[in-house]
Every structure is written in C-alpha cells, then in structure tokens.
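Below is how a single chain appears once it has passed through the pipeline. First comes the sequence as given, then the structure the pipeline wrote out for it. We keep one example in the README because the format questions we get most often are answered faster by looking than by reading.
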Amino acid sequence: SDQLSLFNEDDKKKKLGHAEIKYKNASSILTKASGFMDSYDYTLNPYSGCSFGCTYCYAAFFSRNKEKMDNWGYWIEVKENAMVMLKKKRKKPLKDVVVYMSSVTDPYQPIEKKLEITRQLLKEFADYHSIRLVVQTRASLVTRDIDLFQKIGRVQVNMTVTTDSEEVRKVFEPFCPSNKVRLKAIKEINDSGIQSCITMTPLLPIKNA
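Resulting structure:
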C-alpha cells in the first residue's frame, strides 16, 4: 500500500492553530526542477500549503484553486505517503543530484514538530542516497535535525530573514518566528559545521539602512 502507517485516524488532527489540516496521498515526492528552480535536479515538498502564510509568498499562486489561493496560510495538506514514495527510489538510488527542500512550503512549519515527515525523509536520504541537499526555512525547528544533516554530509541550510524590523515582520509574516529566533537557529546550524546561508528574499522595508 502507498499509505504511510505513521498516522492513524485518531492521531490525525484536523486543525493546528489557525490552519486546517488534511491528509492525502501524493503521486510522487520528488519533482523534476524546472523554471527558476532549474539549477537543482529535484524539488521536495513534504507538505502542500504552509501555516506561516507570509502575505507575499509566491507559492500561493501555485494553489490548485482560487479558494486555496485566497486562504493561503490557513490550510495544510500532509503528504502522508511521502516516505513510501521516497523509499521507491531505493530501486534506482539517487546519486550526485541536488535536491531543494522546499520550493512551495516550509519543511519546518509547526505541524512538522508533531508529524516529523521532514525528519523521516532526511533519515531516508542519510541511509540510502548520495545527494546534495539544500534546505530552505524560516523556522528554528530546523536545528532539531542537525544530527541528520551531519550524517548526510552535503547539506546547506538557508534561513530566510526578510527585514531587520519586527514591526515590519509582523505585518507581512504574522505567523512566523521572530528574526531573533531565526538568527539564533542559523548560528547554531553554522556552529555545528553545516554550510549555512541567510537569504533575504524578498527584501522588505528595513529599519537600519
């Protein structure tokens, strides 16, 4: 079966904070990168939707319908068979490819703390594949997986910081961690010996020019 057995019906929360949660089977978990992502080989998104719901997020425009686009930030779809899809790659292991996680969601949004889909996928990469992984997030939860990043080896963690002003951040990113929390997390990543980067896209109004 392509169902992921980590979750049973009793465990499945229907809401987390402000976001509605649904569970679904994905047809695949690795997507051949194209367009502005074509410098990577594959993109990997453990979830559809993102409860961080940044007001400027381009991912909203990839929503399947106008309702989801208009309600971006208030829904999450969990790809509950993500591990099954990735394990199928054992038959033809990934080697010397670059995977970007994630292009249209945040792999460390709050629901990941409970479900650990991202962590399970990282374990699979560490055990079976020789890849280069680029992780994009704005969440401090990323530090939880330092052990797996070190095991995988070729990993870069990018932390998004769009402004130096908390007032501005709260307007555009009301559900996101503070800048202070993000900077502390990426410092911990860097101090652990993992390649790290701060990305400023988009660059919002700043306080100290």
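Confidence is low (pLDDT under 50) at residues 1-5.

See the next section for the split statistics.
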